[in-house]
């Protein structure tokens, strides 16, 4: 980091705050519930935060030097030892006209003694200097006691300055349950409370309602059983804008199996047994479940019809995403003209009048959980790399279908990636598995009342390409060893234009 901003955090004062009361249980520890106390702690924490942030999976600024850290809002949620500090922090990259930044949500624990049972990756380090000199600063997501405190705030619907905790009516939340950090590979951080609740803490924060809350609430209110019911959420009002969603508490699905794991389990057994169980039945049911969710969203949220101008914007956006992806992964350049050709086949003849609506936005097998009652969909946040306003725009529902089709391809390709060398027999089995399940999913989607994907092949191809382009960038940034998976799909899709 070249420079750490020294600007003051906007800190919340308690209404009854008068004399600055030190509330640490022993001298030198604990957040003071005073503006000065919080600012001092935040300033001491910044150097530790700047070294720790780039090590976190959810941090989107990897590979770009941090040019400044600016505290946005700091709120002490528990005082004493341990203490809990909620912090929204703006992270800046670059300087001058090229400067950019993101706001992140941090939940910081402070203990005078190093916390036990917390992995080294969750410890930011020891605070150096000031009132908190020597205390350990750590990611409180991993502290069952402190995440239990967060659940209490959600259960009581507390309010601290601009932070509001809100319950859905009749959610009857328990308190006094310690939380355990989820070990799932994810874009945010989740905390699980025994077998009943899961709290997702959004890490990268934009002003406005997160689509995960917006859509999950709409589906919950419509009585849909295809999502885990929303129990509570919390948000923060950042200067004059719509409240920004910070966390979402939903019912935990203790008996659920992740669709990605189920699919991988099947493809792993393909070699010994070309038809190991019939995942296609599940793929068909998943298609039906997707259609059901789309129908509820179309009924309860705004829809529109594509006109010529909107079709033009759709194509242009796909071209722009392709161009910026070429900038990140130059290996895409050789496909650019064929892929643009596929986008340009989206004309008014094919698409004028097509309904657009709110959709999941980043559907894949890992977002689908098979429960004893059927498939349930998770994580309606959309693609984390897209700006929030873009993620909230109505889209062709088939975008979700195309995304799920890519996921069947990923599961099959994952098998090949694990093979010691080229294996034509395995390649044939894997591609037949993907084709079978893709077809079953589309058939289920149509049977469930969704638009038949086969009726608009140009749109499906363009949407699949658009998703594969996104995946190329995603893999280059997060899992470079997986990059060949979407690149192989691009190669295949480019050949069909
Ligand atoms: N309600 C739930 N019940 C059971 N497991 C869940 C639930 N919500 C999320 N999970 C698990 O947590 C993982 C990550 O959740 P997700 O909402 O996709 O987070 P992110 O947006 O951070 O990627 C899921 O893949 C799933 O394994
Ligand atoms: O679940 P997230 O919201 O974090 O979504 C991101 O990560 C996904 C990977 O975990 C990524 O999905 C891609 O990889 C999947 C296999 O791991 C595959 O099934 C999907 O089809 C593929 O897109 C998703 O794109 C990304 O936004």
UniProtKB/TrEMBL annotation:
It is an enzyme of class 2 (transferase). Transmembrane segments: none annotated. Keywords: ATP-binding, Carbohydrate metabolism, Glycogen biosynthesis, Glycogen metabolism, Kinase, Nucleotide-binding, Transferase. Residues 1-30 are annotated as: Disordered. Residues 52-143 form the Maltokinase N-terminal cap domain. It comes from the Bacteria. Its EC number is 2.7.1.175. Pathway: Glycan biosynthesis; glycogen biosynthesis. It catalyses: D-maltose + ATP = alpha-maltose 1-phosphate + ADP + H(+). Pfam families: Mak_N_cap. Monomer. Belongs to the aminoglycoside phosphotransferase family. This is Maltokinase. It comes from Kitasatospora terrestris. The lineage of its organism: Bacteria, Bacillati, Actinomycetota, Actinomycetes, Kitasatosporales.
């Amino acid at each position: 980091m070249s420079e750490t901003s020294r600007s003051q955090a906007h800190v919340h004062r308690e209404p009854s705050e008068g004399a600055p009361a030190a509330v640490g249980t022993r001298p030198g520890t604990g957040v003071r519930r005073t503006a000065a106390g919080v600012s001092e702690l935040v300033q001491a924490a910044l150097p530790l935060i700047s070294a720790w942030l780039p090590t976190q999976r959810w941090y989107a600024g990897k590979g770009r030097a941090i040019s400044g850290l600016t505290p946005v809002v700091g709120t002490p949620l528990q005082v004493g030892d341990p203490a809990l500090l909620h912090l929204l922090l703006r992270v800046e990259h670059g300087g001058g006209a090229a400067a950019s930044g993101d706001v992140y949500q941090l939940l910081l624990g402070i203990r005078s003694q190093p916390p036990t049972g917390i992995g080294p990756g969750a410890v930011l380090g020891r605070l150096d200097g000031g009132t908190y000199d020597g205390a350990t600063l750590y990611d409180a997501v991993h502290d069952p006691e402190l995440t239990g405190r967060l659940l209490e705030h959600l259960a009581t619907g507390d309010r601290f300055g601009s932070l509001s905790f809100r319950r859905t009516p009749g959610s009857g939340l328990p308190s006094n349950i310690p939380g355990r950090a989820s070990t799932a590979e994810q874009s945010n951080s989740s905390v699980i409370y025994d077998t009943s609740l899961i709290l997702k803490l959004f890490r990268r924060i934009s002003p406005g309602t997160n689509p995960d809350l917006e859509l999950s609430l709409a589906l919950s209110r419509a009585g849909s059983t295809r999502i885990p019911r929303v129990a509570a959420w919390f948000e923060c009002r950042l200067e004059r804008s719509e409240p920004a969603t910070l966390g979402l508490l939903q019912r935990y699905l203790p008996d659920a199996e992740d669709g990605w794991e189920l699919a991988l389990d099947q493809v792993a057994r393909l070699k010994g047994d070309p038809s190991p169980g019939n995942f296609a039945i599940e793929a068909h049911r998943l298609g039906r479940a997707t259609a059901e969710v789309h129908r509820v969203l179309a009924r309860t949220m705004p829809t529109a019809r594509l006109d010529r101008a909107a079709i033009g914007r759709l194509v242009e956006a796909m071209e722009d995403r392709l161009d910026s992806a070429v900038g990140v992964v130059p290996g895409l350049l050789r496909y650019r003209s064929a892929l643009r050709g596929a986008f340009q086949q989206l004309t008014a003849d094919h698409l004028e009048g097509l309904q657009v609506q709110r959709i999941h936005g980043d559907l894949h097998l890992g977002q689908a959980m098979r429960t004893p009652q059927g498939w349930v969909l998770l994580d309606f946040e959309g693609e984390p790399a897209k700006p929030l306003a873009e993620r909230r725009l109505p889209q062709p529902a088939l975008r979700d279908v195309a995304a799920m089709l890519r996921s069947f391809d990923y599961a099959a390709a994952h098998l090949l990636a694990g093979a010691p060398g080229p294996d034509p027999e395995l390649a044939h089995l894997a591609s037949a598995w993907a084709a079978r399940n893709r077809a079953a999913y589309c058939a289920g989607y149509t049977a469930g009342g969704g638009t038949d994907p086969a009726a608009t092949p140009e749109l499906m191809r363009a949407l699949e390409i658009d998703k594969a382009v996104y995946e190329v960038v995603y893999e280059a940034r997060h899992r470079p060893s997986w990059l060949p998976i979407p690149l192989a799909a691009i190669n295949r899709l480019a050949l069909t234009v």
